[in-house]
Amino acid sequence: MEEIFIQSEDQRAILESVRRFVEQEVTPRAAALDADPDPAAGFSWEIVEAADALGLRTMTLSEELGGMGVDSLTTAMVVEELGRGDLGVSVIFAQTLKIAAIMEKALTEDQKARSLVPFVDDPRAILSIAITEPENASNYIIPYATSFNTRAEKTDGGWIANGMKHFISNSNRARFFLVFMQTDVSKPMAEGASCFLLERDHPGFTVGRVHDKMGERLANNSELIFTDCFIPDENLVGEVHNGLKTLGEFFPSSNSYAGASILGVAVACYEKALDWAQTRIQGGKPLIEHDGIRAQVAEMKMLIDASRSYIHRAAWLADHQEHGWDPTLGALPKVMASQAAWKIATWTLEIHGGHGYMKEAGVEKLLRDAAAFLHSDGVNRTLLLRAANFMEW
Ligand SMILES: Cc1cc2nc3c(=O)[nH]c(=O)nc-3n(C[C@H](O)[C@H](O)[C@H](O)COP(=O)(O)OP(=O)(O)OC[C@H]3O[C@@H](n4cnc5c(N)ncnc54)[C@H](O)[C@@H]3O)c2cc1C
Questions:
Q1: 55-88 per-position pLDDT tens digit
Q2: Domains within the chain, CATH numbers bracketed
Q3: Cα-based distances in Å from 384 to 139, 224, 245, 252, 326
Q4: What whole-number distance in Å separates Cα of residue 153 and Cα of residue 136?
Q5: 337-390, pLDDT tens digit by residue?
Q6: Which of 31, 34, 35, 77 has the greatest number of C-beta atoms within 10 Å?
Q7: pLDDT tens for residues 199-245?
């Protein structure tokens, strides 16, 4: 499928090199990594290092900081291309690329020197953002007037943090983290939570259980635990008590990257379904020559094209808000793309008939992966409600 809306030769060159990277480094490893029953073992440092060699790991940072200054639209295209190879790999980099861009905008010069400089120099450095905790998830996405249970209390020269986060992408592998904690318990999280910068192995900050996920297994997710963890004042990011606002302002394209990751899975399903429909013969002719199947393939294409247009519009407007940014674009493209991916994955299974149910066909991996973004980056129903709250009627 070649209909990605490329606007410049730079984009074309970047996407071609990402496509080669996927073919050479991701596709040959993905099925075996996915099949490992150890929830942490799907992750591959070889893939991260190969991505680093390409400049992919740091591409959203400015050239001044050692990146490529790639914009949100191009990043969304890259993230989709990665998702076409493997969803977990796409998530590792979608998170890292987005968090690096947030850090460049939100950190002080001193904080950048302590984090982004070592991040650029370390080929294995990936990034993680921790907001969700066992009791608070849709609560912060809508958001409701509740508080985070992970709390940081003010003390001399810093904060003492206690609590835990869970489900956090990259968190057992990341070198740097942005973590959201309640710093004013008298206020709801929208006005009383702050964001902190932490490095792995910071005293009092440990990784808990790695979650055993049904899909997206090449990325790891884990718990993060804070036990009387002293965080110095110098690690506060942005304004105190205003962490969630900082996040929204500094990273409007987050939702479109999530949509692009899962759109990549939809494209992989489409390609697999089409390939099968062209080779499998029933009724004396390939499936694709049967009208019911042809119409279904056209519907898959329509859902992919429409989701991609929505994602591209949101990603471009995130960087050019003066041309008509609308806050629902920060919630809805992922909902559309993940619904499309789920439909397309189940239709891919159907087009493969009984063969699709057999693991060797590779459809079941795509189906498990396709389920991931019905909930990641906000449950779809919750995001629809968030968008409704932005709308006026
Ligand atoms: C693979 C994966 C990766 C993730 N990565 C990260 C990460 O890197 N960082 C991070 O911070 N978090 C991460 N998350 C967490 C993710 O954002 C949350 O799982 C998500 O927000 C949903 O939270 P929950 O699972 O606790 O569901 P809940 O909030 O408990 O929701 C349960 C159900 O209730 C519904 N619901 C809730 N409130 C309402 C309402 N008001 N009206 C109607 N229905 C409602 C929801 O739509 C949902 O169907 C990740 C999750 C997954 C699965």
A1: 999 999 999 999 999 999 999 999 999 999 999 9
A2: 9-124 (1.10.540.10), 128-246 (2.40.110.10), 252-390 (1.20.140.10)
A3: 14, 28, 19, 16, 14
A4: 19
A5: 999 999 999 999 999 999 999 999 999 999 999 999 999 999 999 999 999 999
A6: 77
A7: 999 999 999 999 999 999 999 999 999 999 999 999 999 999 999 98
The bridge status of strand 193-199 relative to strand 176-182 is antiparallel
Amino acid at 7: Q
How far apart CA 233 and CA 381 sit, in angstroms, is 37
- CB neighbour class for 143 (10 Å; exposed up to 12, middle 13-18, buried from 19): middle
Query: What length does the chain have?
Result: 393
Cα of 378 from ligand 1 centre, angstroms: 5
For residue 158, what are the CA distances in angstroms to 226, 234, 386? 15, 8, 33
Collapse the DSSP code of 365 into the 3-class scheme (helix H, G, I; strand E, B; otherwise coil) and give the result: helix
At residue 116, φ and ψ (nearest 5 deg) are: -70, -30
CA of 120 to the centre of ligand 1 (A): 31
Query: Can you read off the two tokens belonging to residue 339?
Result: 């619904």
**CB of 382 closer than 6 angstroms to any ligand 1 atom:** yes
CA distance 284 to 270: 23
Per-residue confidence band for 192, with pLDDT thresholds at 50, 70 and 90: very high
Q: Whose CA is nearest to atom 36 of ligand 1?
A: 382
